[in-house]
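User: What would this chain look like folded?
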Amino acid sequence: MELIERKKDENEVRTMSPLTWAYIGDCIYELYIRTKLINETRLKPHMLHVQTTKFVKASAQAEILGKLEEELTEEEKDIVRRGRNAQNHHLPKHTTAETYSYATAFEALIGYLYLTKQDERLKELLLKIGLDEK
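Assistant: Here's the prediction, encoded as C-alpha cells.
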C-alpha cells in the first residue's frame, strides 16, 4: 500500500517546473536521511537533527550530485540540467549560487524519480550516497 498516492502521470510530471520537482525532492531526501539515521543509530532527537543537517545542506547535496553524475542516464542528466538552470530567487545565507543550483538539481532529480514512480531507480541512487562519510 502506498502511503501517499502519486496521481500525476509521467507526461504531466515532465511538464512541471524543475523547482516543483525540487520541492518534493527536498522532502523525500530529508525523509530518507532521517529514517536511515533513526534505523542505524541510537541518537537523541537533537543529535538526529544535527546529523540530518550534515546531509541535507546545499553543499552536501551538491557534492552528492557530483559523485552520482557518472551513474546517471541521459534522461536523468537532462532532469539535473533543468534543475540546475531553474531560476530560483532564493539563496540561503551560507552557500554560493552555484552550490545552491547544484543542490536544487539534486533535489529535482530525487523529486522527478519519486513523482514518476521510478522507485527502484530512486532507491538505487540513494543507496549509492552512503552516510558514513559525513
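The domain at 16-128 is CATH 1.10.1520.10 (Ribonuclease iii, N-terminal Endonuclease Domain; Chain A). If you want, I can go into more detail on any region.
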